[in-house]
Amino acid sequence: MRALQFGDSVLPVGAFSFSNGLEAAVQLGMVSDLETLRGFVTTAVEQSATSDGVGVLHAFRAAAAGDMPRVLLVDQAVHHRKLNEEMRLMTVRMGRKLAEMATHVAPSPLVAQWLAAIQDGSAPGTYPVGQALVFSSLGLAEHDAFGVSQYGLASMMLGASLRLMRINYLDVQQLLFELNGHVDAAYQRVCEWELADMAAFSPLFDIAAAAHVKAHVRMFMN
Q1: Cα–Cα distance between 222 and 220 in angstroms, integer?
Q2: H-only helix segments in the chain
């Protein structure tokens, strides 16, 4: 039940305000129908598995060991791999909101320490690390933490698609179901990666994000 609560697409951490680059992709004509949406979101989720997903796993393990210095190291590593301004904005805003909410709803010493580090500027406060700390404190398995992270990204982007495109909500749910079916394989692929292996290569995403910063009309913050 707690995984459902903290993995809910309407969790009040600001996901509704972001599209993870989808708005820019629609504006630039990179995404225009169901098939191009499938390709774009699938790529985003795959890139997330090898970057944010690896961060989730390492932060989760550090939290389970009570190793706060390691948590902060992972937090910096995730932040450093956000190459454009809007993606950094998204991950730190959502991370801070999650830390504040978790401290109020399900307090834990490690989350409280992390929030204090965010507040004093010694930690960026990325969302994947926040997810890892919250799920570790709730006693969930790392596989579930990884899965919720992957689901949250897909759900965010597909929710945004309904506001950005002329697309059938049934097709969107079918696509989400399809993407959810790949999470276990993604976990098996990256679960033994070192933190230094965390990487993503998505130049078109970065180009779209750069264009979105200067967009005259936009619905989403990234």
Answers
A1: 5
A2: 2-6, 22-27, 34-50, 52-64, 68-80, 85-105, 109-119, 127-137, 142-164, 169-180, 183-190, 203-213
- Whose tokens are 């976990």? That residue is 187
Contact 125, 98 (CB under 8 A): no
C-alpha 46: how far from chain center = 12
Nearby residues of 20 by Cβ (< 8 Å), 6 or more positions away: 44, 87, 90, 153, 156, 157, 160, 222
Map tokens 């909101």 to a residue: 97
> DSSP secondary-structure letter at 25?
H
Return d(Cα 163, Cα 165) in angstroms, integer.
6
The span from the CA of 203 to the CA of 209, in Å, is 10
Query: 181-197, pLDDT tens digit by residue?
Result: 999 999 999 999 999 99
Question: Distance between CA 105 and CA 47 in Å, rounded?
Answer: 31
CA 15 – CA 127 distance, rounded (Å): 11
Share of the chain above pLDDT 90, in %: 73
Distance CA 64, CA 61 (A): 5
| Cα 214 to Cα 25, 30, 134, distances in angstroms | 14, 17, 35
How much is the pLDDT for 83?
Answer: 84
Q: Are 138 and 106 in contact (CB under 8 A)?
A: yes
